[in-house]
Amino acid sequence: MDPSDQPAGQADPGAGPARTLRNVGICAHIDAGKTTLTERILHLCGREARVGRVDEGTSVMDWMAEERERGITITAAATRVSWEGAEINLVDTPGHVDFTVEVERCMRVLDGAIVVVDATRGVEPQTETVWRQVERRGLPALAFVNKCERPGADVLGCAESIEAKLGVRPLVVAYPIGGGDEDVPLSGVVDLLRRVAHRVEADGRRVEVPIPGAIEDEVGVLRAELVDAIGDLDDEVFQVLCGGEEPTVELLTEALGRATRSRRAVPLFCGAALRGHGVPLLLDGVLRLLPSPGERPTPELFDARSGAPMGDPALYHADPEEPLALVFKVHSRRRRAGRLDLAFARIYRGQVQPGSRLWNGRTGRMEEVESVLRIHADAVDELASAEAGDVVALAGLTATGCGDTLSMEGQAYRLEPPRTPKAVMAVLLEPSRDEEREVLGAALMQLVREDPSLRAHEDPGTGQWGLEGMGELHLEVALARLRAEFGVDPRVGAPQVASLESVRASAGGSGEVDRQLEDGRVDAVVELRLEPTGDPAAAVEVVAEGEGADVPAAVFGAVSAALLAEAGTGGPLAGHPVCGARLVVEAARSTSEHLVEAAWGQAAVAALRSALRAAASEGGVAALEPWMAFVVDAPAEVAGGVIGDLNSRHAAMEEVQATGTVGRRIAGIAPLRELIGYSTTLRSLSKGRATFSLRPVGFRPSVGG
Prior knowledge:
Blueprint: E1 21-28, H1 34-44, H2 65-70, E2 77-83, E3 86-92, H3 100-107, E4 112-118, H4 125-136, E5 141-146, H5 155-166, E6 170-172, E7 174-177, E8 188-191, E9 196-200, E10 206-209, H6 213-233, H7 235-242, H8 249-261, E11 266-270, H9 279-289, E12 301-303, E13 324-335, E14 338-349, E15 351-352, E16 357-360, E17 365-368, E18 371-376, E19 379-383, E20 386-387, E21 391-395, E22 405-407, E23 413-415, E24 425-430, H10 437-450, E25 455-458, E26 465-469, H11 472-486, E27 491-492, E28 496-497, E29 500-503, E30 507-517, E31 520-532, E32 541-544, H12 553-567, E33 578-579, E34 581-589, H13 597-617, E35 621-635, H14 636-648, E36 652-659, E37 663-671, H15 678-686, E38 691-701
Parallel strand pairs: 1-3, 1-4, 4-5, 5-11, 6-11, 29-33, 32-34
Antiparallel strand pairs: 2-3, 7-8, 8-9, 9-10, 12-23, 13-14, 13-22, 14-21, 15-20, 16-17, 16-22, 18-19, 18-21, 24-26, 24-27, 24-28, 25-26, 29-35, 30-31, 31-34, 35-37, 35-38, 36-37
Helix pairs in contact: 3-4, 6-7, 6-8, 12-13
């Protein structure tokens, strides 16, 4: 793309070019049609000559080999399209529960969202999860009811589902012509605001068609309801209605945009991404209803060292020329000349260009940008520069990871720190050959750098590596990447659930080190108190009280680092990570003349082990394991067998309801270890006619065997 075509994207919402840019993410439950929608948008906007298909493995956005083989989105893919004189940075996010963290990282840098809902299924479990992410980020959103061409499609039913399950007010702004019935194919979509119907031809042209007489009355009722709803939300429209006049389309559109951007309503579009119906109207909605970068609130700043929110409002009025960017994704791609490391970044202030030197506050290092790149799935185009509001890739950053803030040298603040949930599943790896040992370690470190929700650690005694992730599929994809991208094929153990050990009673402990070294005697004593935090699965925190509050900062730093490292690997029950604990350092004494960090660390570890043993002996440490919420959709005749099998897996049933006339939806929670390989069992029980989905609900006490 020519750099002159880029939007200027200044922070001032009144700046003309900034209003022509939108940063939007497409999110939904798996198989709702996110990637198909993105492929249709690429075709309609002239970015691609044909519409890629997920089922054929030809989609542009699902570019990884694993994605095309499995037919699902695994990694978020970004692209840039032009529509009606504006530019849209579009991010297609994963829909599988194992990659929810990837969605969270993308939502952090976007200004709006399109939530896709299957017209035949309504709101599904992962839709609720991604909606919570949308709400947490305060993103204005549009809803797109997809697959309206399928039998059983129900747009108004989906609107009710959105209102009931997501707790938002959907405003139906589009209605399908036909669809939902095998005898009445989908032939277009009605724009309710303008009372105009369109269909999309095979070549992508939008053609106006008459509204069929069979739905004219229904369209009239729906439009009247839409106008009344907008009047409830907007004083200007309300006053026009009170005067007995009909609001203009322009006034209604402006009012709907204000309601959308203030998150008081979610406009609901509909159509069929595979055929293109309704997609042009959705793109119109992106431009008219969602905000530009300058219309979004200034992101909150945090102290670079402590992570605490910064209270000085002057920081938000820094020199607009000073660059400020957040890296939300890191990815390494193979090229003929070697690997290309890309840092996907949202620029919040200033300008970034090749040769820019940016400060990474986490590492305390300057990084030089080799090139600024426009992203199109796995392809990139070099840019002369990128400005505030844009989403680009930066090449040449060697020590920057996901969540890092890039700014002027020496800045003491950063953008919001990343939140990474605890891993729920693990496998053991060991190299097939000794000469692969170093390559395996380097490859795992690269995977962890790209995906912080993966964790890898080596056992020095056995030489094995532990790889932890968010689920079976997450780990399978990581292992497949090891083989395909890094040429490493390690031996892999059976998947194991990642358990925790939670502190639920107080106990004290002390540790002492007294050794004679070549340059003198070294001694250290650490006393601490172990306390439950109230949240059984909360991360361990270290504080100092009493005499311990007077120890030098360097001593407390050494003690704290040792305690956190030990808590991460050394629970008293089975060696699982400790959680739900507050470690209170009550004293740290030494008669040595020189500070020896290793001595303080060893004494701290001994004190923690002593306290944990004391707590465990009194039943004050409990095992926790990850639990999942499940939803199974099954034919009525096999529902009894499915429920019986779930009961045998220690599931707690929450709901069994009819879906249509021949289906049952079974919802509840169960331990993750009981659901490993469940898809095979369910396929056998239902002869392949049942489906299920999972989402994590946190760590809970272990049950059963």
